[in-house]
């Protein structure tokens, strides 16, 4: 039987074949999408094509902003006070007793001996020893065994100036020998309790003596560090160190205001050393005072002194100076040995 061609069936077969081919193609595409083959659509795109309608993502709750962490400010600790070094004036100051000022009752210059002494027994009095120590280019009076200084140059510490010293009635006062711790100040801060020979040592101790500008020394007078300091600020540390060393040596005290004034100065130079004793004598042990002799009966006034050789008579060095005759020498009109305390043939010096 001859087969008959049916167009409708042919179209049906063709449609089925095409559908089968489409399935194969789609399967291949899906495989490529899953494996991420180069050239395929991104997985998200495929999911969008195959998963149906896109889902709207759930809104996320807002995340609270992190609170800033408060970091405490770093406070630099206050610097600890520097330890006081041994051997410094500041350390020595801490050993000085602090008390009130005693009355000045009974004070006189003679409580510290009569005039300049020779504590080191070198044949020269303390005044000339200090001039020789503190001056440069000094010259000495001939025949005095290099004791009596007659000229020199002083780099003056209190004022910071230079003084050309020349001994003489009108010029000697330009350079004076200052007691670094004034005698009257010492009297009110413990020296009353010292024996007479200790006070004499104090007044002639090189540690407590300094060649100084006359007007500056007069301005200082009996002041302590609370009421007077050298105008030359560069010398103040050394000056208060000397005062502290003298008071420590003789076991004198300070007032609170004096102590505080010295501490303020030394705070700017905490390493200021304790000064050398500079050859000063050691403090003598207390000597028992001999009982005072009974007062002698009053005598009739002495007859006026006759005029000495040359017809001139001077009652004392004040009269010699007033007459313009100082210094007076052996053989000069009015000369008497009472004017020559150091036995060098010259009296009423400086």
TrEMBL record:
Presence of the UniProt keyword Manganese in the record: no
Signal peptide boundaries: 1-33
Disordered: annotated segments: 34-86, 328-350
Pfam hit, one: GmrSD_C
InterPro entries: Excalibur_Ca-bd_domain (IPR008613), GmrSD_C (IPR011089)
Assigned keywords, A-Z: Signal
Biased segments, Low complexity type: 53-86
UniProt-listed SMART domains: Excalibur (SM00894)
Organism name: Arthrobacter hankyongi
Annotated Basic and acidic residues bias: 335-344
Domain Excalibur calcium-binding per the UniProt entry, residue ranges: 313-349
Full protein name: DUF1524 domain-containing protein
